[in-house]
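We emphasize that the prediction below concerns an isolated chain of 461 residues; any contacts that depend on oligomerization or on bound cofactors are therefore not represented. The input was used exactly as deposited, without trimming of termini.
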Amino acid sequence: MAKEKSVYICSECGGTSPRWLGKCPACNAWNTLVESAAESAGGGKNRLSQTGRTGYAGQAQAVTPLAAIEATEVARTPSGIAELDRVLGGGIVEGGVVLIGGDPGIGKSTLLLQAVDALQRQGLPALYVTGEESGAQVALRSRRLGLDNSQVDVLSEIQLEKILATCESRQPAIVIIDSIQTMYSDQLSSAPGSVAQVRECAAHLTRMAKSTGIAVVLVGHVTKEGALAGPRVLEHMVDTVLYFEGDTHSSFRLVRAIKNRFGAVNEIGVFAMTEKGLKGVNNPSAIFLSQHSEPVPGSCVLVTLEGSRPLLVEIQALVDDGGPSPRRLSVGLDRDRLAMLLAVLNRHAGVACADQDVFVNAVGGVRIGEPAADLAVMLSITSSLRGKALPKGFIAFGEVGLAGEVRPAPRGQERLKEAAKLGFSVAVVPRANAPKKPIEGITIHPVDRVDEAISLVRGLD
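Result of the prediction step, given as a token string:
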């Protein structure tokens, strides 16, 4: 049977070309032609010949009001790994498609092999499709992880049609595709990993998952910038997108949900890499706190929210004499926001750092994106500049505006209860976050403005 021809479609205007060109002949855009499978002659022939009076060939379909549709909670199957289930929203969803990405060697294949082995031991048939390794390499890894007598089926294949046929005959409950960049379809002539191949293979696997109820997990490569390689449309096709974060030289890994149709986004799972694979961390706040015997200048503990989980993270600042052009460097925090906070400190609190080098770091490699970290960052900078440590057991959180006001952070009660549970005794928070009933073990100081917070902290020394 002759191979189907491919056509090149412009991603800007939709124009087609029988061969690849640097510039689209229709709209003159550069590098926008993407290879796609051409329609068969039978499928496109006379497709407008059966149209009715309105010019549309399809038949009208019945519609149902939302109130008449029975809504039920989606059934979930726990994977046996609590931190992974937290990120997924409770477990594996039947017919769900998950895309997981991360740097090479960070632990994607290790975590998924542990998860499918746990599901297999629960009685759910699992299929592990590897396109980057041989079956012997996967077996060697499973033995190294201590997964003795694992019954997970392994298929070393990169052709999409063979994978789909195997899934149809075996009918597994979950399929792992490691990785989507190695797969190719016979319908396209481009090499595996190209934009067209990745999109085509992902579309077929997603269609299979929705029609059969098989859960599919796709492993994706990332670019140098840290984004998933391949077309951006890949993230829109799937139900859940997970990213591995963390330094490969560190023993800790974070798995963050960027998109989740069946759960909360920005939820994180914390893992520790051990000789027996990735193990969930029960108390992740301990990772992000330095173990100082006594308080040190430039250190302030922040209670941040990662999804539904409050975490305690230590913010460290170092203010030093700068040269003609002082440096502003932040790790784990937005650099532009740091510059804004320094300007607010100067204008509304009288703390000048214009001729100083300012370095700010979030301990443990965590990335903090919420503005509730503003107050902790400013207090740590002030502490380093003065050379005076903050009180022992001190925490702070709150957003700071350009007018110097301290704005409330969401779910302040949960943050304070988490801090009290871990032994912190003094908190400076926005006035709107002050609880009506006192929380046992922690003294709360509500503030309205930045200068009020700094004056209050000086009085606590």
